[in-house]
Amino acid sequence: MQKKGYMKNVIFDFGNVLVRWEPEKIYTEHFGDEARAWWFLRHVADNRWRLRIDSGESQDRCIDELQRRHPEYSDAIALYRSHWREMLTGEMPGMYALVEELKTMTDVYGLTNWSMETFPEARRMFPILQLIDRYVVSGAEHLVKPDARLFRVLLDRYRLAADDCIFVDDNPDNVAAATALGMEGIVFSGADSLRKRLTGNA
Hints:
Elements: E1 9-12, E2 19-21, H1 23-31, H2 34-43, H3 47-54, H4 59-69, H5 74-82, H6 84-87, E3 88-91, H7 95-103, E4 108-112, H8 119-125, H9 127-130, E5 135-137, H10 138-141, H11 148-157, E6 165-169, H12 172-180, E7 184-187, H13 191-199
Parallel strand pairs: 1-4, 1-6, 4-5, 6-7
Antiparallel strand pairs: 2-3
Helix pairs in contact: 1-2, 4-5
C-alpha cells in the first residue's frame, strides 16, 4: 500500500508490546509463591505447549492432554482456560498514543502469536488492538513466530517488501527471524525508547 510518509511500514507484535500478558500473576496468586508460578510456566504449561494453542490447536484438547500428563496440576492448568482474560492486564503504557502517531506517518500492521479462540474477544477488550486493522494471527494460519512462513503470510497478504518494514517484538528470537528476512528488527523495551528510535522524538 502507498505509505503516508517516508518511514518504513511498522509491524507490531501484540502481547507485551501493545497489551500486557502476565499469566505469572494469576499463577502466583494460585500457588501463593512467585517462584512456583514461574516454575509451572517453564516446566508444565511451558512455551512449547502454549505455542501449540497459538498455532490453532484446540485449547480444550491441549488443556485436557496436559491435565492427563500432570494430574497433580490439573486445577492450575484449568486456569489457562478460565482466567485468560485476567492474564491480560492492560495496555502497555504509552503505546496507544504512539500507534496513533505512527498511523499519521506510515502504515501500521500486526503479527501476533495468539489463539483465534480468544483473540477476537481480546481485540474487543482493548482499544489499542482495534487501532490495527491489518494483521495476521498465528492461530488462523496454523503457524507461529519465529517461523519465517508466518512472516511471509503477512508480507504476501499486504504486498509488503521485507526491506521496507520495521518489526517490533519483545521476543529476541522473533526479531532475529524478521531481520533474517530483511526487515529492520527492534526488541521492544518500552514506548519512550521506541518512539525515539522510530520518530526521533523523545
